[in-house]
């Protein structure tokens, strides 16, 4: 199966990076550090719905106690 254009590009980039590393000590090679992004397990949409239910209910309870 033939390589796609994207695969060829990525393979060429990897080969260039490997050639640049050849003959250098590990301390001289810059390692890419991946940033850890903390991601909430609940989407923002559901957080807004939850806040509306909790605080909306509280708001209506306060209104009901004032006008009762």
* Extended strand count: 0
* Beta-strand proportion: under 5%
Poorly predicted sequence stretches spanning 5 or more consecutive residues? none
- Number of helix segments? 2
Function: Interacts with target proteins during translocation into the lumen of the endoplasmic reticulum. Protects unfolded target proteins against degradation and facilitate correct glycosylation.
Subcellular location: Membrane; Endoplasmic reticulum membrane
GO cellular component, one term: endoplasmic reticulum membrane
Protein name: Stress-associated endoplasmic reticulum protein
Describe this structure in words.
The protein contains two helices and no strands. The protein has helices spanning 5-21, 44-66. The mean pLDDT is 87. Residues 1-28 are annotated as: Disordered.
What topology emerges from the helices and strands here?
Blueprint: H1 5-21, H2 44-66
Subcellular location: Membrane; Endoplasmic reticulum membrane
InterPro entries: ER_stress-assoc
Protein name: Stress-associated endoplasmic reticulum protein
Summarize the structure.
This protein has 68 residues and is an all-alpha fold. It contains 2 helices and no strands. This is Stress-associated endoplasmic reticulum protein.
List keywords for this structure.
elongated, 68 residues, 2 helices, 59% helix, mainly alpha
């Amino acid at each position: 199966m033939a390589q796609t254009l994207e695969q060829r590009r990525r393979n060429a980039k990897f080969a260039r990076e490997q050639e640049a590393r050849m003959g250098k000590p590990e301390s001289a090679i810059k390692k890419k550090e991946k940033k850890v992004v903390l991601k909430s397990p609940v989407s923002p949409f559901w957080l807004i719905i939850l806040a509306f239910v909790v605080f909306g209910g509280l708001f209506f309870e306060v209104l009901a106690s004032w006008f009762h």
